[in-house]
Amino acid sequence: MQGFSVLNIFLLVLGGGVAGFINTLAGGGSFLTIPLLIFMGLPPTVANATNRIGVFLQSLTATRQLHSHGVFPVRFSLIIAIPAVLGSVLGTYGAMVVSDAAFKKYLAVFMVLMTLITFFKPAAMLSRPEGKYSFARWSLLWLLFFGIGLYGGFIQAGVGFLIIAATVLTGYDLVAGNAIKSFVIFLLTCVSLAIFWFGGKVQVAPGLALGCGSMLGAFVGSHVTVSKGNGFIQKFVVVMVILSAILLMLK
Predict the structure, then answer these.
(1) Which candidate, 114, 93, 205, places its Cα nearest to that of 159?
(2) Cβ–Cβ < 8 Å for 110, 153
(3) pLDDT tens digit string along 163-215?
(4) How many angstroms separate the first and last alpha carbons of the chain?
(5) pLDDT tens for residues 73-109?
(6) Smallest Cα–Cα separation from 220: which of 7, 32, 18, 40?
(7) CA dihedral 247, 145, 195, 1 (to 10 degrees)
(8) Which of 204, 194, 182, 240 has the alpha carbon at shortest distance from 58?
């Protein structure tokens, strides 16, 4: 990328650190990093693809850290990650074929819709499962996570909010839900990043700069998740949703 100066590197590492912390506790960090990459001179579709390097590294770091703290339900996460990964394949291919102008419009529309869905919190209207999951509960979970994967593959920004909203159906608390979220995002990002990479959409240098900061932010965020617990995470999510909505209205 032309004009990729020391200042660019510093800003991307700093932005990645903030985004990594935000994404680990809640979501919406890409609301910061995608516009930042566009400001650095990347076309919107390339910025969307390049941003996945930072998301990949931060979600890997967060998953490892949360697993080391014993709050990661591995088997369950693998099961619900399957529809998310399948959805991400379709979403990523969709992001590959749209123009830069069309992507910016889709970005604005989907971010507003995602924020509104998070405000209404439809999953909160459903009861947490007790004991074994019913077939209907599993079907709803798979449908929700397929849709989350579709969105995550296409845009990714704010997908953490959707996963946290969907975890009410899993019966897990917000600490375990954050571990589930990090793992699901890690897997769907692996798939998306590979597709974007072979499609020639990824810029390595700015992506790695974001990634370095993202790993540090995710490391700090994972410790805060475990040490502060459900109450802090819930408040943090609410604050980030409000801030994200404000930023969207100012765009």
Answers:
(1) 114
(2) no
(3) 887 887 777 777 788 888 889 999 999 999 999 999 999 998 888 998 888 88
(4) 25
(5) 888 889 999 999 999 999 999 999 888 888 877 776 7
(6) 18
(7) 20
(8) 182
